[in-house]
């Protein structure tokens, strides 16, 4: 009876309810090439949404590219961990910035060329650089006051400390502006700008002997072509004038001190480049006006004005207005571009600006230039470019 019981087989129902045997999972074979050891990275933080990972792996293994069905990862896990997100490229923003800087540079150079042409025309007919310089600052001050009053431009928030810090900058700017105008009244525009291309040499010398700053040897070597080129251009200048030469040299020195005072006085100030130059023009006008009256005077101005109008006609008035307005505009755009670029890029742009002014003035005023004079100018400008590098 026991043997019969042992020989009884389970019924079909019992067999159906029994758990099936475990079947092994067959994975695809690894490639036979150079295999790498498997390295695992263990993190104390829990993995999130593991089903997303498994779903992605299974889709890839099956050869299907349908990833849209897998759920998106969450913005953050419980412990604050966030999935890695690939940021969109900022190429459109950088492209727009470069285009804006390019517009600034082109506008800056064009306005500077126009100013120098009209400024030289005015000084040829009206050789009074003190009044001419005053009118340039007055026009800029009037433009900015009108733009502030009509709210075209937001007026800057300034205090007494701001104006105290601005005063030495305005003093140096006034001296440099008048000296450059005196130079252009006595010599050709091209010669003035050739001498003014030596401004980096003054910058290095002033910083070395007055501020105690030291520079690498290549910086000092870059001054040799600047000084040599300016000297060669001055010696071979057909219309050389000592007053014009000294005016350009004084302008270089004054603008170097202006830059030094600007760096020291404007630390921590939040005034835009446009408004900063507007304030600078207004303070320079207040400083310059009494000196202009003392040096030339209203009687001299009235006589010279009548003579210029009689010789040139009504166009002389437009020349004065143009040189005054364009002086402010080109300086304003240069300060606006300085807000967007580094001082190195600004220095290179300033060097290229002088090239455009020199070439344009030689063509328009038909200034006679000897080959050795042109070589000196090219050497000086090349030295300035090397110094910028």
Inertia-based shape: globular
Total number of beta strands: 0
In what range is the share of β-strand residues? Answer: under 5%
Report the oligomer.
single chain
Helix fraction? 55-70%
* CA-CA gap between termini: 109 Å
Radius of gyration: 37 Å
With helices defined by DSSP (H or I, 4 residues minimum), what is the helix count? 15
> N-to-C SSE series?
HHHHHHHHHHHHHHH
Largest sheet: none
Structural class: mainly alpha
Low-confidence runs of at least 5 consecutive residues: 1-19, 38-78
Q: Structurally, how many domains make up the residues? A: 1
> What average pLDDT do the residues reach?
77
Describe this structure in words.
With 389 residues, the protein is mainly alpha-helical. It has one domain (97-388). The chain contains 15 helices and no strands. The chain has helices spanning 2-6, 12-17, 50-62, 91-125, 129-149, 160-186, 189-196, 199-209, 217-235, 242-265, 273-295, 298-312, 315-338, 343-365, 371-388. Helix 6 runs antiparallel to helix 10 (242-265) and helix 9 (217-235) packs antiparallel against helix 15 (371-388). The longest helix has 35 residues, at 91-125. The relative contact order is 0.14. Mean pLDDT is 77; it is low at 1-19 and 38-78. Pfam families: TPT (PF03151).
